[in-house]
Amino acid sequence: MRIKEMSDLAGTTPRAVRHYHRLGLLPVPPTVRGRREYGVMHLARLMRIRWLADGGLPLAQIAEVLAQDPGGADREAVLHSLRATRETVIARRRELQAQEARIDELIARVEDGEGLEPIPQLLVRFYDAVQARLEEEGLNTRGLRAERQVVTALAALALIPDSIGTFLAELDGAEWEAGVRIYAQIARLEQLHGEEARTAAVDLAEETWEYTLRHRSTALAAFSDFPTGSPGRTTWRLTQMITDTYTGPAQHLYLDRFLELLMADPDFAAVIRRLAGDEPAL
């Protein structure tokens, strides 16, 4: 029989048959009058290849199975391949279930009128509020945009803990406004110079620390839930990229002073060192 006839009988395509030839899965038949002539042996082997592939075996494992005798000494090797494939299928099923859950979450967000950013929706609302305030006051939004982009990237990598949302959910109207005001003051530091800038930076760091202490438990939980090891170091490096977008000396003085206050607290110092190492810097 010709290649198309055989492939039709096996429920596949001539292109797939040629691919199996290249991989050595299916022997190349003899040529008769310039055309390959396939026999029953080829059809039977092709149908077995398709049956194994439909069962979930990768082509590399199919080659191993076909090279073995399932009724003889290689029976255990065949069983091992099949069981390994079954575990792969189970793992894939779990991945699909997790993907289904994520899609359900996206559907729920759209139905609720929310956006499709990977960061927690409360954080989206907070960033939107800060953005509006900065634009209203004619302040530079570069640092905020950088932070939002970095946080979005971290969230896409599942490196933003859910406890960030818990921290924001704790904020009442006055504390929400206080957080927005701190961001606006950070942006305003860019415009200050000399002693005025230094005093404003130190005062703002103290104000930010007092704000943090008012929400100590949820803030500490959010810090603690960030990943450690290599993911934690990645998170800290990306955080440093945010601070690099600040151009005002007073802004960097503010960051340095706020980090000093955090590191002076044993609990915050411990979780920051888990992220950034023994000598963290912003």
TrEMBL record:
SUPFAM superfamilies: Putative DNA-binding domain. Residues 79-116 form a coiled coil. Gene3D superfamilies: 1.10.1660.10. CDD domains: HTH_MerR-like. InterPro entries: DNA-bd_dom_put_sf (IPR009061), MerR-type_HTH_dom (IPR000551), MerR_fam (IPR047057). Residues 1-68 form the HTH merR-type domain. GO terms for molecular function: DNA binding; DNA-binding transcription factor activity. Keywords: Coiled coil, DNA-binding. This is HTH merR-type domain-containing protein. It comes from Actinomyces glycerinitolerans.
